[in-house]
Amino acid sequence: MLQALTDRLAQHPIAYDQLRRVIEFNFVALHRALSEARERLNIDDKDGWILDLPCGTGIFATNIEEDAYVGADLEALYVSAARRRHPARHFQVADGTALPYADESFQGAILMGFLHHLDEPTVGAVLAEVARVLRPDAWLILIEDAPSPGFRNPIGWCLQKLDVGDHIRESDAYTPLLEPAFREQYRRSFASGFWNYTMWLGRKQDLGDREATPAER
User: Quick one: which of 61, 127, 172, 176 is 20 to 30 A from 120 by CA?
Assistant: First the structure.
């Protein structure tokens, strides 16, 4: 019953956002994490476009200057809500495995609460596509749901059972998924209200720059 209610709420973007605001204490910790990431990666919005994938209803769009922001999401309902919320910003319905952007279009990308919905082959396809549209010197901010420790956060553990993502991973599981295209620079775990996350920061790397695997040596 609770799962059915959660699924129904997800079809009403603004109502779903309000529920998340309650669970995550108005996203204060997520906004702080994004500010920390910007500082660590020395991000300057004037350096070019920044991709927010998936953008949802544009909750975090204000962390980026209007002229630099590009939000993309597969769900048209969420893109419509984002456009109403931020009419001066650019939002587009797009598939993360087939982005409608030219090669090397963006200075960086933010992926938040996305990959835990995807199996590993699809994660690989998305990351390859994101790498394609990023410049050679680009940065990546990944903030993903992490398993809630039930003994320290029983409410979060229960809520996570209702999440529609079936692939919530431990924090160290993302490095091997990301490393074919990105080089890790920083990683930490944190809580946003009752929800647990991992933040992973990295830079795009050329295949020729990465260390060869034992099978390739």
Answer: 61
CA dihedral angle for residue 208, residue 144, residue 37, residue 132, rounded to 10 degrees: 30
SS3 186: strand
Model pTM? Answer: 0.89
CATH code: domain of residue 65:
3.40.50.150
- Our measurement of the distance from residue 197's CA atom to the centroid of its chain's CA atoms, rounded to an integer in Å, reads 11
Between CA 128 and CA 144 the distance in angstroms is 18
Whether 213 is in a domain gets the answer: no
Phi and psi for 149 in degrees, rounded to 5? -75, 110
Query: Would 211 be classed as within a structural domain?
Result: no
Q: What kind and span of H or E run contains 196?
A: strand 195-204
Cβ distance 100 to 92 under 8 Å? yes
Whether 178 and 205 have beta carbons less than 8 Å apart is answered as no
Number of structural domains (the chain) is 1
pLDDT in tens, 178-212: 999 999 999 999 999 999 999 999 999 975 554 54
Residue at token pair 């320290």:
152
